[in-house]
Design a protein that fits this description.
This protein is α/β, with parallel strands linked by helices. Helix 3 links the parallel strand 7 and strand 8. It has an 8-stranded mixed beta sheet with strand order 2-3-6-7-8-9-10-11, with helices on one face. It has a single domain, classed as TIM Barrel (Alpha-Beta Barrel). Bound molecules: iron/sulfur cluster.
């Protein structure tokens, strides 16, 4: 794992995410190394030769760049993060996200954080000092063997579920981003039934087979779920109706169970950028 300390010129960046006016990415690169990560496009801005998941640039001056006294962010929303995980393992050492949060408290933005790591629990004391703060976990599967295959260094399924429970106990609003939904693998109903007593809202996103991840996903299927290879080819063929049906199923289920939900499916347009991803 190549870790490099870098200095940057700005840290709160205007965002085109539907959820955020601004976004903060404390790191470039991500140790979690998810096979489906769309943020791997970031690699081309770094000069790194290591594969995605094997390098992290640490923005060591990140918290110094947050202004001390401004109303600029007061009624604005800030998302942490969009192209990295703010609580990936290296955060344990550098505490960059923690330092950023400390500097954001006086500015009181609407804050949302997205992670796959239970390290987030460390900062509950800080979340409590925001008037509006939401912590979202993303989760794709309940089976930890598959989780390890697709998100090698992320927290285990149990750790994430426990972290959500603890956040809920601490009265921090939570969301669960069921993302990405792997056809025939992600059992989103089961995930909801297991978590609905401590999750405030659900977000859903389908697996997008971008050209940068397509080979990796099919390799994973051939090695772990060979019976699904042909099914995926059909699902991802031009005239497939799979995601329309899945979207309707989710809408109906959420309506029937009175769940707050948002669906970020990208089968109707050619989005390159996904709305919110850690
Ligand atoms: S945790 Fe998020 S940013 Fe990190 S590799 Fe996984 S999808 Fe990408």
């Amino acid at each position: 794992m190549k870790i490099k300390e870098i200095k940057v010129k700005s840290i709160i960046v205007k965002s085109n995410l539907p959820e955020g006016d601004f976004v903060i990415n404390p790191y470039i690169g991500c140790q979690h190394g998810c096979k489906y990560c769309y943020a791997r496009f970031m690699k081309r801005f770094t000069g790194h030769t290591e594969p995605w998941g094997f390098f992290v640039d640490v923005k060591i001056n990140a918290s110094d760049l947050i202004p001390e006294d401004t109303n600029k962010y007061k009624d604005k929303s800030i998302v942490i993060s969009s192209v990295t995980d703010p609580y990936q393992p290296i955060e344990r050492k550098y505490k960059l996200t923690r330092k950023i949060l400390e500097r954001l408290i006086p500015l009181q933005p609407h804050l949302s954080l997205m992670t796959k790591s239970d390290l987030v629990i460390r900062d509950v004391d800080l979340f409590k000092q925001f008037k509006d703060c939401l912590v979202a976990f993303s989760l794709s599967v309940l089976d930890d063997k598959t989780r390890k295959e697709i998100e090698p260094l992320s927290s285990s399924v149990d750790k994430r579920i426990n972290a959500l429970k603890n956040l809920h106990k601490a009265n921090i609003p939570t969301a669960l981003f069921i993302s990405p939904i792997f056809p025939e693998i992600t059992d989103w109903k089961k995930i909801i039934n297991k978590t609905k007593s401590f999750v405030g809202e659900y977000w859903f996103e389908n697996l997008n087979l971008y050209s940068s991840i397509k080979n990796g996903i099919y390799r994973f299927l051939r090695e772990n779920k060979p019976e699904l290879v042909e099914k995926y080819k059909k699902i991802y063929s031009k005239d497939s109706n799979y995601w329309n049906i899945e979207e309707n199923n989710i809408n109906e289920f959420c309506k029937k169970n009175k769940l707050n939900c948002r669906i970020y499916f990208h089968h109707k347009t050619n989005h390159v950028q996904q709305p919110l991803k850690n």
